[in-house]
Amino acid sequence: MRPISGASVDARGRAARGAALIVGVLLAVTACGGGGSDSGDSKGKAAGNSSQAETKQSEAVVAIAPKDGAQSVDTSGALKVSATKGKLTEVQVKDAKGTAIAGKIAADGASWTPSLHLASGTKYSVHAVAKDSAGRTAAEDSSFTTLTPKNTFIGNFTPEDGSTVGVGMPFSVRFTRGITSPADVEKAITVKTEPAVDVEGHWFGNDRLDFRPEKYWKEGTKVTVSLNLDGVEGRKGVYGKQDKTVSFTIGRNQVSVVDAKKHTMKVTQDGKTVKTIAVTTGKPGYDTWNGQMVISEKLAVTRMNGETVGYGGEYDIKDVPHAARLTDSGTFIHGNYWGGDAFGNYNASHGCVGLRDVKGGYDSGVPAAWFFNHSLIGDVVVVKNSDDATVAPENGLNGWNMSWEKWKA
To answer: DSSP E strands: which ranges in 7-136?
Structure first.
């Protein structure tokens, strides 16, 4: 009986172990395929590919010149940003104050250049981004400092900031150094008007640049001029050091017409005559210039000495009242207390336009005082029928005597 009993126990043990092994194998087979072999393998491969895509770098290469940390960098031509194996999508250039520098990315995306020169002695930061054909981005950052010039220039300008001027007033800049790169300097000066009107610049020599519209300014026009000269190389090794904004307003329209033959001046406002004044102009041999002349300076009293204008000691009057300058060469429209009965009758001056006045200029009722008090810097005085030539455009603020075509040339 025991052998039979023992055999039965051993058989049951082997059967149990066999059953467990079969179940384990089945479980193992089920576990291998139970999650869905297609979906599990697909996810694994996708995850692997995504990781590879994320780690692959952009092929685009961004280059910035000058190199990072460069010092004494030229203000023009040195700053360049480029991209190879990709296209630039963003370029930011800022100074230490955070002011952005305008520039343009080329149509092919291969380069960026600034629109204007850079300021001198200034640190700039550059941030540039490019994309390759797969849309992957690459970026580059850099900083540099521009040169501090040893030789500089500025522009002395008229009219003054905040002033109200006549309709003939140009914006005139006289530079302290002769300019040999006029295009660069002119590009650094912008003129904006409200209402908008086309304004063009014209050079007189190499040290003066005037801006005006084709016709006299419209009354009430607001003019804003930006002198962005800091860093512009006006001549070899000589840089501007001026960064200034100037605004002025055009006042009422006053144009006065002097007839040298009739010895009269008609003062017009908005095209209507408001006063006719008897005058005297230049006597034979000293005739007054013809043409359109702009009042550039007003002096309540001034000295007029013939020696300063090439007339020797012919006259020296220390107290000429109510004087308004019309040319750099010494033509004025002014009060005259010594002219006797010349006003309205004959020409007796050395080239100026004279109006009756009193010594000391104390009488506000005389013609010279009235005209002086009703005139602005920038008002126009037109002289006609004189035996002299037309005044040169550069002799004073008198560019109106040049055609618009020549002005723009």
So the answer is: 61-65, 70-73, 80-84, 87-95, 103-105, 111-114, 123-131
Q: What is the pLDDT of residues 283-301, one digit of tens each?
A: 999 999 999 999 999 999 9
Tell me the per-residue pLDDT of 26-63, one tens digit each, with 9 for 90 and over.
333 333 333 333 444 444 444 444 444 455 899 999 99
How many CB atoms are closer than 10 A to CB 269?
Answer: 15
Residue closest to 255 by CA, chosen among 294, 286, 281, 287: 294
- Burial of residue 4 (number of CB atoms within 10 Å: 0-12, 13-18, 19+): exposed
C-beta pairs of 329-337 under 8 Å, 24+ apart in sequence: 329/395, 329/396, 330/304, 331/288, 331/289, 331/293, 331/391, 331/396, 332/304, 333/258, 333/295, 333/371, 333/381, 334/302, 334/304, 334/368, 335/361, 335/366, 335/368, 335/369, 335/372, 336/280, 336/368
What is this structure's pTM?
0.83
Closest by CA to 118, choosing from 240, 241, 226, 230, is 230
One-letter identity of residue 316: D
**Is-cis flag, bond preceding 195, omega within 30?**
yes
Cα–Cα distance for residue pair 254/398, rounded to 1 Å? 16
Spatial CA neighbour of 212 closest among 384, 393, 382, 395: 393
Average pLDDT over residues 351-356: 97
